[in-house]
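Appendix B. One record, verbatim.
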Amino acid sequence: MVLSTRAADARRDFLKLIERPRVDLAPKVEEPSTTNGLKLYHFSFAADARQRVPGFLLKSADSQGRRPVIIALHGTGGSKTDMLRLCRQFVARGFIAVAIDGRYHGERSPLGKGSAEYEAAILRAWHEPGEHSFFYDTVWDVMRLVDYLETRDDVDAKRIGLTGISKGGIETYLAAAMDERIAVAVPCIGVQSFHWALDNDAWQGRIGTIPNVFKAIATESGASNAAVVQKFYDRVAPGIYGEFDGPAMLPLIAPRPLLVINSDSDNHTPLPGVNECIKTARRTYHNAGADAQLAVRIQEHAGHQVKPESEREAIEWFVKWLKP
Protein backbone atom coordinates (compact mmCIF):
# COMPACT_ATOMS: atom_id res chain seq x y z
CA MET A 1 0.00 0.00 0.00
CA VAL A 2 1.33 3.45 -0.92
CA LEU A 3 1.19 5.77 2.09
CA SER A 4 -0.04 9.31 1.86
CA THR A 5 2.60 11.97 2.43
CA ARG A 6 1.16 12.71 5.87
CA ALA A 7 1.15 9.02 6.85
CA ALA A 8 4.67 8.49 5.53
CA ASP A 9 5.83 11.51 7.52
CA ALA A 10 4.23 10.14 10.71
CA ARG A 11 5.99 6.80 10.26
CA ARG A 12 9.32 8.50 9.52
CA ASP A 13 9.00 10.84 12.50
CA PHE A 14 8.06 8.09 14.92
CA LEU A 15 10.95 5.91 13.81
CA LYS A 16 13.31 8.87 14.16
CA LEU A 17 12.07 9.29 17.73
CA ILE A 18 12.58 5.69 18.85
CA GLU A 19 15.37 4.41 16.62
CA ARG A 20 18.70 3.50 18.16
CA PRO A 21 21.97 2.47 16.48
CA ARG A 22 21.49 -1.11 15.33
CA VAL A 23 23.93 -3.33 17.14
CA ASP A 24 24.37 -7.04 16.51
CA LEU A 25 21.40 -8.97 17.96
CA ALA A 26 23.83 -11.33 19.75
CA PRO A 27 21.01 -13.74 20.57
CA LYS A 28 21.32 -16.20 23.43
CA VAL A 29 18.99 -19.20 23.56
CA GLU A 30 18.88 -21.64 26.45
CA GLU A 31 18.24 -25.35 26.07
CA PRO A 32 14.48 -25.92 25.97
CA SER A 33 12.39 -27.57 28.64
CA THR A 34 9.70 -29.98 27.45
CA THR A 35 6.42 -30.37 29.33
CA ASN A 36 3.11 -31.82 28.16
CA GLY A 37 4.27 -31.91 24.56
CA LEU A 38 5.43 -28.29 24.52
CA LYS A 39 8.96 -26.95 24.14
CA LEU A 40 9.74 -23.73 26.02
CA TYR A 41 12.87 -21.79 25.05
CA HIS A 42 14.20 -18.82 27.03
CA PHE A 43 16.11 -16.33 24.89
CA SER A 44 17.45 -12.81 24.87
CA PHE A 45 18.80 -10.40 22.27
CA ALA A 46 20.30 -6.92 22.11
CA ALA A 47 17.80 -4.20 21.29
CA ASP A 48 20.55 -1.58 21.39
CA ALA A 49 23.95 -1.07 22.98
CA ARG A 50 22.52 -1.00 26.52
CA GLN A 51 19.31 -3.01 26.47
CA ARG A 52 18.92 -6.79 26.21
CA VAL A 53 15.40 -8.10 25.80
CA PRO A 54 14.47 -11.38 27.54
CA GLY A 55 11.68 -13.54 26.21
CA PHE A 56 10.35 -17.02 25.75
CA LEU A 57 9.35 -18.99 22.67
CA LEU A 58 6.80 -21.77 22.98
CA LYS A 59 6.03 -24.39 20.36
CA SER A 60 4.79 -27.92 19.98
CA ALA A 61 7.47 -30.52 20.64
CA ASP A 62 6.65 -32.15 17.31
CA SER A 63 6.57 -28.88 15.33
CA GLN A 64 8.37 -29.14 12.01
CA GLY A 65 9.42 -26.65 9.35
CA ARG A 66 8.66 -22.95 9.46
CA ARG A 67 5.54 -21.99 11.39
CA PRO A 68 3.60 -18.73 11.78
CA VAL A 69 4.35 -16.95 15.03
CA ILE A 70 2.31 -14.71 17.34
CA ILE A 71 3.95 -12.22 19.68
CA ALA A 72 2.02 -11.42 22.89
CA LEU A 73 2.69 -8.24 24.90
CA HIS A 74 1.77 -7.82 28.57
CA GLY A 75 0.22 -4.87 30.39
CA THR A 76 1.51 -2.39 32.97
CA GLY A 77 3.09 -4.11 35.95
CA GLY A 78 3.03 -7.49 34.24
CA SER A 79 5.63 -9.66 32.58
CA LYS A 80 6.02 -12.15 29.77
CA THR A 81 4.96 -14.92 32.16
CA ASP A 82 1.48 -13.40 32.27
CA MET A 83 1.10 -14.24 28.59
CA LEU A 84 1.99 -17.93 28.95
CA ARG A 85 -1.62 -19.12 29.22
CA LEU A 86 -2.60 -17.31 26.02
CA CYS A 87 0.55 -18.52 24.30
CA ARG A 88 -0.38 -22.12 25.07
CA GLN A 89 -3.67 -21.55 23.29
CA PHE A 90 -1.86 -20.20 20.24
CA VAL A 91 0.41 -23.24 20.16
CA ALA A 92 -2.62 -25.53 20.41
CA ARG A 93 -3.85 -23.98 17.15
CA GLY A 94 -0.58 -24.58 15.32
CA PHE A 95 1.36 -21.37 15.98
CA ILE A 96 4.69 -20.66 17.58
CA ALA A 97 4.12 -18.19 20.43
CA VAL A 98 6.54 -15.58 21.77
CA ALA A 99 6.42 -13.13 24.67
CA ILE A 100 8.96 -10.59 25.90
CA ASP A 101 9.33 -8.40 28.96
CA GLY A 102 8.57 -4.76 28.22
CA ARG A 103 10.99 -2.06 29.32
CA TYR A 104 11.47 -2.08 33.11
CA HIS A 105 9.22 -5.10 33.60
CA GLY A 106 9.82 -8.74 34.49
CA GLU A 107 13.48 -9.71 34.19
CA ARG A 108 14.22 -6.12 33.18
CA SER A 109 13.30 -4.94 36.66
CA PRO A 110 15.27 -5.63 39.85
CA LEU A 111 12.00 -6.53 41.54
CA GLY A 112 10.98 -8.93 38.77
CA LYS A 113 7.36 -7.83 38.96
CA GLY A 114 5.16 -4.80 39.44
CA SER A 115 5.60 -1.36 37.91
CA ALA A 116 7.85 0.49 40.39
CA GLU A 117 10.90 0.39 38.10
CA TYR A 118 8.73 1.35 35.11
CA GLU A 119 7.31 4.35 36.93
CA ALA A 120 10.79 5.39 38.09
CA ALA A 121 12.01 5.31 34.46
CA ILE A 122 9.06 7.41 33.31
CA LEU A 123 9.71 9.94 36.06
CA ARG A 124 13.36 10.13 34.97
CA ALA A 125 12.16 10.85 31.44
CA TRP A 126 9.97 13.66 32.80
CA HIS A 127 12.97 15.28 34.47
CA GLU A 128 15.51 14.47 31.75
CA PRO A 129 13.79 13.80 28.40
CA GLY A 130 15.57 11.24 26.25
CA GLU A 131 14.21 7.81 27.04
CA HIS A 132 10.67 6.95 25.99
CA SER A 133 9.86 4.20 28.45
CA PHE A 134 6.14 5.08 28.33
CA PHE A 135 5.11 2.78 25.41
CA TYR A 136 7.53 3.93 22.72
CA ASP A 137 10.77 2.14 23.60
CA THR A 138 9.03 -1.22 23.79
CA VAL A 139 7.87 -0.64 20.20
CA TRP A 140 11.55 -0.51 19.24
CA ASP A 141 12.12 -3.74 21.17
CA VAL A 142 9.28 -5.40 19.23
CA MET A 143 10.82 -4.35 15.94
CA ARG A 144 14.15 -5.83 17.03
CA LEU A 145 12.31 -8.96 18.12
CA VAL A 146 11.02 -9.29 14.57
CA ASP A 147 14.64 -8.94 13.40
CA TYR A 148 15.51 -11.85 15.68
CA LEU A 149 12.58 -14.00 14.57
CA GLU A 150 13.69 -13.57 10.97
CA THR A 151 16.94 -15.33 11.84
CA ARG A 152 15.24 -18.48 13.16
CA ASP A 153 14.78 -21.51 10.95
CA ASP A 154 11.50 -22.51 12.63
CA VAL A 155 9.69 -19.20 11.99
CA ASP A 156 7.86 -18.15 8.84
CA ALA A 157 8.75 -14.46 8.83
CA LYS A 158 5.95 -13.71 6.35
CA ARG A 159 3.37 -14.82 8.93
CA ILE A 160 4.02 -12.82 12.09
CA GLY A 161 1.09 -11.76 14.27
CA LEU A 162 1.11 -9.33 17.19
CA THR A 163 -1.29 -8.88 20.09
CA GLY A 164 -1.15 -7.18 23.46
CA ILE A 165 -3.27 -6.19 26.43
CA SER A 166 -3.70 -2.62 27.74
CA LYS A 167 -0.18 -1.13 27.64
CA GLY A 168 0.65 -4.02 25.35
CA GLY A 169 -2.37 -3.15 23.22
CA ILE A 170 -1.05 0.38 22.69
CA GLU A 171 2.37 -1.01 21.84
CA THR A 172 0.69 -3.45 19.45
CA TYR A 173 -0.98 -0.84 17.27
CA LEU A 174 2.06 1.44 17.37
CA ALA A 175 4.44 -1.37 16.38
CA ALA A 176 2.12 -2.66 13.65
CA ALA A 177 1.83 0.88 12.27
CA MET A 178 5.62 1.15 12.13
CA ASP A 179 6.63 -2.32 10.94
CA GLU A 180 4.98 -3.84 7.89
CA ARG A 181 6.57 -7.20 8.69
CA ILE A 182 3.81 -7.58 11.28
CA ALA A 183 1.22 -9.27 9.09
CA VAL A 184 -1.75 -9.31 11.49
CA ALA A 185 -2.49 -7.23 14.61
CA VAL A 186 -4.97 -7.59 17.48
CA PRO A 187 -4.63 -4.75 20.03
CA CYS A 188 -6.76 -5.46 23.11
CA ILE A 189 -8.14 -2.71 25.39
CA GLY A 190 -5.42 -0.37 24.15
CA VAL A 191 -6.75 1.52 21.12
CA GLN A 192 -7.66 5.07 22.12
CA SER A 193 -7.43 8.74 21.30
CA PHE A 194 -5.25 10.54 23.82
CA HIS A 195 -6.32 13.82 22.21
CA TRP A 196 -10.01 13.09 22.78
CA ALA A 197 -9.31 12.19 26.40
CA LEU A 198 -7.46 15.47 27.00
CA ASP A 199 -10.16 17.54 25.30
CA ASN A 200 -12.94 15.87 27.27
CA ASP A 201 -11.35 15.64 30.71
CA ALA A 202 -11.24 11.84 30.42
CA TRP A 203 -7.50 11.30 30.88
CA GLN A 204 -7.67 9.99 34.45
CA GLY A 205 -8.04 6.28 33.64
CA ARG A 206 -4.92 5.98 31.50
CA ILE A 207 -2.84 8.23 33.77
CA GLY A 208 -4.10 6.16 36.70
CA THR A 209 -1.98 3.24 35.47
CA ILE A 210 1.11 5.15 36.63
CA PRO A 211 -0.21 6.77 39.85
CA ASN A 212 3.12 7.42 41.55
CA VAL A 213 4.47 9.23 38.49
CA PHE A 214 1.53 11.56 38.19
CA LYS A 215 1.36 12.20 41.92
CA ALA A 216 4.98 13.41 41.83
CA ILE A 217 4.40 15.49 38.69
CA ALA A 218 1.20 17.05 40.06
CA THR A 219 3.01 17.96 43.27
CA GLU A 220 5.86 19.59 41.31
CA SER A 221 3.42 21.39 39.02
CA GLY A 222 1.03 22.50 41.74
CA ALA A 223 -1.91 21.19 39.73
CA SER A 224 -3.59 18.01 38.54
CA ASN A 225 -5.37 18.77 35.31
CA ALA A 226 -5.36 18.23 31.55
CA ALA A 227 -2.74 20.94 31.01
CA VAL A 228 -0.30 19.10 33.30
CA VAL A 229 -1.07 15.79 31.57
CA GLN A 230 -0.43 17.42 28.19
CA LYS A 231 2.93 18.72 29.40
CA PHE A 232 3.74 15.24 30.72
CA TYR A 233 2.93 13.63 27.36
CA ASP A 234 5.03 16.23 25.52
CA ARG A 235 8.09 15.22 27.53
CA VAL A 236 7.79 11.45 27.88
CA ALA A 237 5.79 10.45 24.78
CA PRO A 238 5.89 13.36 22.33
CA GLY A 239 3.21 13.22 19.68
CA ILE A 240 0.99 10.74 21.51
CA TYR A 241 -2.00 13.07 21.41
CA GLY A 242 -1.08 14.43 17.98
CA GLU A 243 0.61 12.83 14.99
CA PHE A 244 1.07 9.52 16.85
CA ASP A 245 -2.41 9.34 18.38
CA GLY A 246 -4.68 6.37 17.71
CA PRO A 247 -6.69 8.01 14.89
CA ALA A 248 -3.43 8.73 13.05
CA MET A 249 -1.64 5.44 13.69
CA LEU A 250 -4.37 2.84 13.18
CA PRO A 251 -4.75 3.67 9.47
CA LEU A 252 -1.03 2.96 8.96
CA ILE A 253 -1.76 -0.73 9.55
CA ALA A 254 -4.02 -0.91 6.47
CA PRO A 255 -4.52 -3.07 4.48
CA ARG A 256 -3.09 -5.72 6.81
CA PRO A 257 -5.67 -7.60 8.93
CA LEU A 258 -6.53 -5.72 12.12
CA LEU A 259 -8.96 -6.74 14.87
CA VAL A 260 -9.61 -4.06 17.49
CA ILE A 261 -10.94 -5.25 20.87
CA ASN A 262 -12.14 -2.60 23.31
CA SER A 263 -14.89 -2.17 25.90
CA ASP A 264 -17.90 0.11 26.16
CA SER A 265 -17.22 1.14 29.79
CA ASP A 266 -13.43 1.31 30.03
CA ASN A 267 -12.18 4.60 31.48
CA HIS A 268 -8.66 3.74 30.31
CA THR A 269 -9.88 3.87 26.70
CA PRO A 270 -13.05 6.00 26.57
CA LEU A 271 -15.36 4.72 23.86
CA PRO A 272 -15.87 8.05 22.00
CA GLY A 273 -12.10 8.25 21.56
CA VAL A 274 -11.99 4.64 20.39
CA ASN A 275 -14.66 5.48 17.83
CA GLU A 276 -12.51 8.33 16.51
CA CYS A 277 -9.76 5.79 15.86
CA ILE A 278 -12.14 3.34 14.19
CA LYS A 279 -13.58 6.05 11.95
CA THR A 280 -10.23 6.98 10.44
CA ALA A 281 -9.18 3.33 10.17
CA ARG A 282 -12.41 2.33 8.39
CA ARG A 283 -11.95 5.12 5.86
CA THR A 284 -8.41 4.01 5.05
CA TYR A 285 -9.28 0.33 4.84
CA HIS A 286 -12.24 1.12 2.58
CA ASN A 287 -10.12 3.27 0.27
CA ALA A 288 -7.63 0.38 0.07
CA GLY A 289 -10.39 -2.06 -0.86
CA ALA A 290 -9.73 -3.93 2.37
CA ASP A 291 -12.96 -3.60 4.38
CA ALA A 292 -12.86 -7.30 5.27
CA GLN A 293 -9.41 -6.94 6.81
CA LEU A 294 -10.70 -4.65 9.58
CA ALA A 295 -12.92 -5.93 12.39
CA VAL A 296 -13.98 -4.32 15.67
CA ARG A 297 -15.29 -5.96 18.81
CA ILE A 298 -16.70 -3.63 21.46
CA GLN A 299 -17.31 -5.67 24.60
CA GLU A 300 -20.66 -4.74 26.13
CA HIS A 301 -21.03 -3.93 29.83
CA ALA A 302 -17.29 -4.34 30.25
CA GLY A 303 -14.51 -2.30 31.76
CA HIS A 304 -10.76 -2.72 31.42
CA GLN A 305 -10.75 -6.43 30.71
CA VAL A 306 -10.57 -8.95 27.88
CA LYS A 307 -13.48 -11.36 28.06
CA PRO A 308 -12.96 -15.05 27.22
CA GLU A 309 -15.14 -14.77 24.12
CA SER A 310 -13.02 -11.85 22.89
CA GLU A 311 -9.89 -13.89 23.45
CA ARG A 312 -11.39 -16.69 21.38
CA GLU A 313 -12.26 -14.24 18.61
CA ALA A 314 -8.67 -12.97 18.61
CA ILE A 315 -7.36 -16.51 18.21
CA GLU A 316 -9.76 -17.20 15.33
CA TRP A 317 -8.69 -13.94 13.66
CA PHE A 318 -5.07 -15.10 13.66
CA VAL A 319 -6.08 -18.54 12.40
CA LYS A 320 -8.08 -16.98 9.57
CA TRP A 321 -5.30 -14.73 8.29
CA LEU A 322 -2.09 -16.55 9.22
CA LYS A 323 -3.34 -20.05 8.33
CA PRO A 324 -1.24 -22.24 10.65
